[in-house]
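Troubleshooting entry. The earlier prediction with heme C gave an output that would not parse, so I re-checked the input for stray whitespace and re-submitted. Clean input:
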Amino acid sequence: MCDSLGKNIVCLRIRVKVFAFLVMACLAVGANAAPDKARQQYLINLLSQDCGSCHGITLKGGLGAALLPENLRYKSDQFLIKTILNGRSGTAMPPWKQFLTEDDADWLVKCLRRACFNN
Ligand code: HEC
């Protein structure tokens, strides 16, 4: 029924909807999705509860290295993001990629750098 553009108003509407959907889909894929507020709260809880069990409740170190801003100053974001997602083989640091996206890990590194946890 949709053989020529605009011939039939229903067909035109469908085309507009499909186009709008494609634009939205492209935007969603292209966006660097920073975690929303609820996810940020989840990540902060994760830091104190899960990460804190090894890195110390205030992240000053324990079984795991201290994760305070001065400890991370000379380490790159990429290096730390990789450590969080993949863990470090041969050490107790486990991989978190089943639970965290790259955006989550990126946010966590920035969070650690500004000591978000202790504020
Ligand atoms: C089972 C214990 C354990 C847990 C749980 C754990 N870590 Fe680790 N983590 C370690 C150890 C041990 C190291 C040090 C590895 C080494 O010696 O290179 C480490 C290293 C790191 C480093 C690199 C520090 C540096 O100076 O290079 C980061 C960043 C890190 N962990 C973040 C996290 C985050 C974020 C979580 C929670 C999502 C977490 N860790 C949970 C044990 C743990």
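This one parsed fine. The mean pLDDT is 84.
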